[in-house]
Amino acid sequence: EVQLVESGGGLVKPGGSLRLSCAASGFIFSSCSMTWVRQSPGKGLEWVSSISSSGNFFYYADSVKGRFTVSRDNAKNSLYLQMNSLRVEDTAMYYCAREEVIGVGRNWFDLWGQGTPVTVSS
Amino acid sequence: DIQVTQSPSSLSASVGDRVTITCRTSQNIYNYLNWYQQKPGKAPKLLIFGAFSLHGGVPSRFSGSGYATEFTLTITSLQPEDFATYYCQESYHKAFGQGTKVEI
After folding, report:
1. pLDDT digit string (tens) for A33-66?
2. Hey, which of A8, A39, A82, B104 would disulfide with A20, CB 3.0 to 4.6 Å?
3. Rounded-to-integer distance, Cα A72 and Cα A79, Å
4. Which phi and psi (to 5°) does residue A29 adopt?
5. Phi, psi of A118 (to 5 degrees)
6. Is the Cβ pair B96, A47 closer than 8 Å?
7. Nearest-CA distance from B49 to chain A in Å?
8. H/E/C letters for each residue in B57-91?
9. Nearest chain A Cα to B92, which residue?
10. Contact (CB<8Å) A35/B55
11. By three-state DSSP, how is residue A29 classified?
């Protein structure tokens, strides 16, 4: 079955760290760019970070740049998001998604996981 | 930064209605515009990419149009399963609109 399954979410204090994982199955993970998108409670969607299929290129939203690190292990069909210096405003459901890329600026998220919740609170 | 603005933010409609949602961007994005559907408690699903291309498995009552800075998502003959929140997204900077909730 083609699917993405996130894990690693939880409750963390402000300033703390958390590492999210996303396990991919049913498709050739090493050929696909991947992305993280988050959604604060009752709010809209926010792109967080993307990584190329090789892992050599990565991109971040300004709101997380310098605090979050995206990585992947193609041998394990897994995507990761290391989140440091967490803030209350990072509280959200975090989704991983497969990114279809056909050119510069021409991309879309065609497969999503069910999400993992992150709560940052003292 | 590019701004992505959807309108309306919510709308009420009935089964069988034709529904149109508009997405405007602050810069010319050619046809680099995607649409997603999200139901409560669920992950978003891709509906349309590249402004007008229907993603596989998406019913043909969904269609997209537009270019440059103004885009529309149209649902002809709204079905019960279409009540959801819809988001547009410009794919160059990957910014989402704020969403349009379609309610009964």
Report:
1. 999 999 999 999 999 999 999 999 999 999 999 9
2. A8
3. 4
4. -55, -40
5. -120, 125
6. yes
7. 6
8. CCCCCEEEEEECCEEEEEECCCCHHHCCEEEEEEC
9. A105
10. no
11. helix
